[in-house]
């Protein structure tokens, strides 16, 4: 029998009070690497994500990704009894994650400073649209709004056309990952000092943090970067090029030596050996000419033919994947990024594998996403409640 690898975060107790995407994604990431996550949900409907997008037997299949490796405690946070349960759980937790609007925790008598007073080692991650301070703090903030405020939406369009959203909730996910980084930093600090702290992550700031040279270019030159479709302004040549079969090849020929190999491949050594195109600045000045030359070459070849030739010339290139392409791709399979789990009804479901890959303490799928309140009794007993007390709370609808 194979002994499971140790978990990097084994023994770390995490209390998740958030819902939908940002907070739960952060907690899921910790759970994948062994953290013991108790997810608190409202009795009745539970986390709204349970009913988002496509449902199988009444539950979103997305739920099986976002809440794997967690336990569910259905608890009414609006009641004094529910709040007392949270305080007791927080007194023994290492990390508490919440992504409610600023002030909600305080309104439930669960202010982080009070929780820290009772448990000085507690690390509290707070994710919100605009952060816990500032003039916008009380505005409701969703990822799509944060993506626009962070500068991303302005760039995601063809020139002259309406900006479009990224097809997933990237603002929430970026905020969640920044939150995980914050937790790991805070754990390191706690290891040295013995004390926890509060981590304040704003969705728009997480997006803005990934906007590369956007602000310094504006500061230094007054340059406002505009939408450029599939190209990347200021870096050339890199674009999506249409092929004979109607598909597109993504080609990144923007390294100096890569550019020369690309031009040799497409029969344009006149461009590859042109001293004016030897560096990126020169190529940017003539990007339309370069794109036309590459596009002429791809237009008479299929995507497969283009990619095979580029691979042979060591030029970075790829196709645009659909999820069907992802599910069938051997590289995804070889790296364990297509995970097969068995649902509670015995059916199989493909879900994303675990990222990142750790050699000594890899993450793993330990249990399926829980039914609402599946672990309520067990969690409450662990903090000292008797079966009689639990039954009384259930009778009053505080626990489910």
Task: Give the SSE map.
Elements: E1 13-16, H1 22-32, E2 36-41, E3 55-56, E4 59-60, H2 63-66, E5 70-74, H3 80-92, E6 95-98, H4 104-107, H5 112-118, E7 123-128, H6 143-149, H7 170-193, E8 198-202, H8 203-208, H9 214-221, E9 238-242, E10 248-252, H10 256-265, H11 269-272, H12 280-285, H13 287-298, H14 303-312, E11 317-319, H15 323-328, H16 330-334, E12 338-342, E13 348-352, H17 376-382, H18 387-395
Parallel strand pairs: 1-2, 1-6, 2-5, 6-7, 7-8
Antiparallel strand pairs: 3-4, 9-10, 10-11, 12-13
Helix pairs in contact: 1-7
Short structural summary:
The chain is an alpha/beta fold.
How many domain modules? 2
Globular, elongated, flat, extended or rod-shaped: what is the shape? Answer: elongated
- Let me know the largest β-sheet: 6 strands, parallel
What structural class should be given to the helix and strand makeup? alpha/beta
- The proportion of strand residues reads 5-15%
Mean residue pLDDT:
96
What spatial order of strands do you see in the largest sheet?
A: 5-2-1-6-7-8
Give me the count of strands.
13
Percent helix, as a range, is: 25-40%
Enumerate the spans where pLDDT stays under 50 for 5 or more consecutive residues.
Answer: none
Compute the gyration radius: what is it? Answer: 25 Å
Query: CATH top level of the largest domain?
Result: Alpha Beta
CATH superfamily of the largest domain: Crotonobetainyl-coa:carnitine coa-transferase, domain 1
Distance between the termini: 38 Å
Number of helices: 18
Do you know the CATH architecture of the largest domain? 3-Layer(aba) Sandwich
CATH fold name of the largest domain: Rossmann fold
